[in-house]
Amino acid sequence: MRVLVISDIHANYTALEAVLDHAGEVDETWCLGDLVGYGPDPNLVVDRIREIHNLTCLMGNHDAAVIGKIPFETFNPDARRSLERHEKVLNADNMDFLRSLQQTVQVRAGVTLAHGSPRDPLWEYVLNTLSARLNFAEFDTSSCFVGHSHIQCVFSLDEKSDRVSLEATRPEVVLSMSPKMILNPGSVGQPRDRDPRAAYAIFVSDAATWQPLRVEYNVPEVQQRVREAGLPEKHAIRIAEGW
Ligand code: ZN
Fold first, then answer.
1. How far is the CA of 153 from the centre of ligand 1 (A)?
2. Is the pLDDT of residue 180 over 90?
3. What is the pLDDT of residues 107-125, one digit of tens each?
4. Percent helix, strand, coil in the chain (nearest 5)?
5. CA of 194 to the centre of ligand 1 (A)
């Protein structure tokens, strides 16, 4: 089975379209959450995600906030401004869809899926080998896919030596998955690893391979919509620089 793994789209419709085009035919799509927040196109993104067949979609912390499950005060002021706007503009069907998303860890084809981490699915960032180590004990499958940090990366645990390492992955280069790994496809709509191209991954379950990928999209067009919507200028600048 060929699976498209996406996360952190953040209301960036142009980036999402570029990823769906670039990925081509897939058997399933696993979305690790954060459809909304930050960007200019919350309805377009949720509409497009709802059209995807064989979809598993988790709830991210921004999705949880916009449906009232997390107080806006827990977000920084710039993130909050986008959430306040998205809460106003999202239509009733799309709000219902966000409410229907899975808040807990899911297991699909022998892989654990979480937005943040298996230990704390909505909030915790797996950003370093320490947070990865604490999370390896929290799932039983051989691998776990997470989003939330917006950084395309892979952590592995060598169970013999009990060592956790952060592996440098390169776009296009196919990785053979081994027990145990925590893999992050990166962010579609707001990458934070200094590569502004939209990030995603292709997981092939039968071969146990993971291919991190990047695709260019029309950033200036999205920046213009961020400005037209009166969203914080910071959200326009960062998508061109990848932070
Ligand atoms: Zn996010």
1. 15
2. yes
3. 999 999 999 999 999 999 9
4. 30, 25, 45
5. 15
CA of 81 to the centre of ligand 1 (A): 15
CA–CA dist 157, 166 (Å, integer): 9
Burial 170-199 (b: 16+ CB within 10 A, else e): ebeeebebeebbbbbbbbbbbbbbeebbbb
Q: Which of 54, 60, 12 is nearest to 32 (CA)?
A: 60
Q: For residue 60, how far is its CA from the centre of ligand 1 (angstroms)?
A: 7
State how far Cα 242 lies from the chain centre.
14
Of 152, 140, 154, 151, the C-alpha closest to 112 is 140
- 188: DSSP letter: S
**Cα-to-centroid distance, 191 and ligand 1 (Å):** 9
Å from CA of 163 to ligand 1 middle: 28
Please tell me the distance from the alpha carbon of residue 139 to that of residue 103, in angstroms, as a whole number: 16
CATH value at residue 50: 3.60.21.10
Domain that holds residue 16: 2-241
Q: How many domains does the chain have?
A: 1
